[in-house]
Request: fold
Amino acid sequence: MSAHTSEHKTMTLKLIVWRQKGPNEPGRFENYVARNITEHHSFLEMLDVVNEDLIKEGKDPIAFDHDCREGICGTCSTVVNGVPHGGQVRTTLCQLHMRKFKDGDAIYLEPWRARAFPILRDLVVDRGALDRIIQAGGYISCHTGGVPDGNAIPVPKANADYAMDAADCIGCGACVAACPNGAAMLFTGAKVAQFAALPQGQVEAPERVANMMKEMADCGFGNCTNHYECQAACPKGIDVKFIARLNREFLKALFMAKAGTFTPVGE
Amino acid sequence: MILDGKAPTGPIEQSWDKHRFEMKLVNPSNKRKYKILVVGTGLAGASAAASLGELGYNVEAFCYQDSPRRAHSIAAQGGINAAKNYPNDGDSIYRLFYDTIKGGDFRSREADVWRLSQVSNNIIDQCVAQGVPFARDYSGYLDNRSFGGAQVSRTFYARGQTGQQLLLGAYSALSRQIKLGSVKMFPRTEMLDLVVVDGEAKAITIRDLVTGEIRVHTGDAVLLCTGGYVNVFYLSTNAMGCSVTALWKAHRKGAFFANPCYTQIHPTCIPQAGDYQSKLTLMSESLRNDGRIWVPTKKEDCGKPANQIAEGDRDYYLERKYPSFGNLAPRDISSRAAKEQCDEGRGVGPGGRGVYLDFRDSIKRFGENVIRERYGNLFEMYERITDENGYQVPMRIYPAPHYAMGGLWVDYNLMSNLPGLFVLGEANFSVHGANRLGASALMQGLADGYFVIPYTIANYLVQTKPGKVKADHAECRKSIDEVKGTKKKLLSINGNKTVAEFMRELGTMVWNNCGMARSKESLTEAIAKIPAIREEFWKNVKVSGTGGEFNQQLENAGRTADFMEFAELLCRDALHRNESCGGHFRVEYQYEDGEAKRNDADFAYSAAWAFKGVDKEPELHKEPLTFENIHLAVRSYK
Reply:
């Protein structure tokens, strides 16, 4: 074992946490104290400490979603002081460290709040709606096997880089939580743009965007009104230009449908 | 019992093609009658579920995460190997095969490794077709880089997020099948038992992690794609939810656990900063392409700022000891070398458990911009966690548990000794032997899921009657009662110690006694101590809440209980293997220069253990390993 907690100055923090037993139960804020926190604790390790204390006191620990704790799985999903993931630029909550806080700070913790994300318990929400958007068309319909050699599909480097910028999305839903309209257009736009930039994605481009947009609306997500809160909150810094691309691809699909060159599934 | 891996005979180059032809097929119109249960939806599980769904099977897939897109495959950074030989630098299927056998320290099955090398090329094609944004050069063709343990550039990558992009590719294929109705997806669901009827795997018992409901899902075959078990060390690079539970439950029901002592310790992780730490973070070992690893030559320099230590007082120990591979020496060798330096008192950072990874020379040679372009995201991650700027001061790294080469025993068809139970990806023991080479885990997960199981499962299904076992079968009801009983017991103890305290105690002990270096004494001590910790756990653990609700403490308690039993098997396997090979290093068995000393005369076999009861010694079965194509040799990276 290495550094002892005693080597560092410790902090005491006041937490004001949203507690809710289940989707249909009323929720409320409750106060807790986080003690013996050092600057090297990650935010979630701070919550671990609080939960250990609660368990020992025989109280229900705070439920929060987390898994990889290295900023890539997109599981962690808590609004800290009004900002999804706590406000450090391009950082998930699990990578936010307590050195960003001061001794005595009061910290508000809330779940993602959006019509499409029902609260399951405390800070945990159901983000299944994001999966349903992908299921509606976020793929290239290639069968396993029977595909050409990888180098038979050259992709200009600029397009590959653009697609990678979009594919960076970890699907955490912070964009939805940050948006005053609860829109998932940054999430959807990133996936649509990734495939729109690649030759492999061209064949199904109009169906893809039409189906994903429809699913988005069906799930109860709102629409973009250019606040750009999503980009500010995104732990991967996904650019709002992908929302513009989404709109462009959607418009293209509409024109194609009008011209009779493609029929959206289900119409 | 001598186990038969059922590997095909004859020339290795034709083995997989011949075997594919010889296996039976399921008539297309009959496929929908078979239900396949896929547990875990990382690279192996998602690719298997998607491919089997496409073929027309009726698939149910389960994962503990809230979405299949979050499986821990997502955290793999570096890349995926394939024998494409696009750079024209001497690669071939045979060379990838050779490197993997040698890298695994001659403890894997030749035919399985050949097949992996052969289908590696199909994986790249498949992922490109799915729209995985691999790195490209200016011609638009795919770019490659070199990776630890290889002298050719065969690694395909998508920035520092290759695992993420490959998983999202498999997830997209899976999502398409979910929409089409061929796969039914159950997220936030944990498998807590395997139901075996007449010796065959026919169902699983699961807990719905949201409602707490415990129920059985029946099927005609069960695929475990549940990843590795290195969270047994408490601190590892695995996600918090990764556990041995699914594998252990299957083991308790008769599936053999093979080579658990082969665990991989990754050399380039961020060192531990304090006792409260919940996990360790890995940085891609691609950093070793441009970073130089060193420690101060003199102990008294260890406390000094790195930049004040003169060039002559720095010991670039990997370059010194392994001149031809240098900083790119395989993971086990690099990790052990770091431990040696720290054991000698020349480690740096908190607790003296760290070595420097220094980019000073590369920045001088290429400029900071080039280094930023190559590794920018890793430098950022390092700074977020440590508050240090890797461009200005050398990074500190230390090895951390990372990957499990061991797993459930499977034959060439990926079927365990229990008919109907298949094990894919990290969860099985098959291809990495005693040590896995960099960029090979992603390759194996996708090989098993996309290109092996769709063929080999038919060979089993064709001789079974679909829908043989129903949910009201006596074995299913018994299993539900058992799972409910365990949960009830965990909730009723109401002791004084939390689940995390127990896991920390167990993991720290296993890490100290069965980590990077093991001895007869340390292992014997661990085997004596584990039952006591386990006993205390069942008397003194505190789990709050109820079983019929979302209860993360209860989930963790169940996983910890399984680690308590598994840890003992891990140590027993390590104690029985009186040799050093790959990730298993026994201090008694080493050459004078500290290199691992294999014992091929006595230990050229896979050890497959049968469960005999919690407090009983497991029974050892052996699968002899024969090397017909690659000559058994002492591994040397000098």
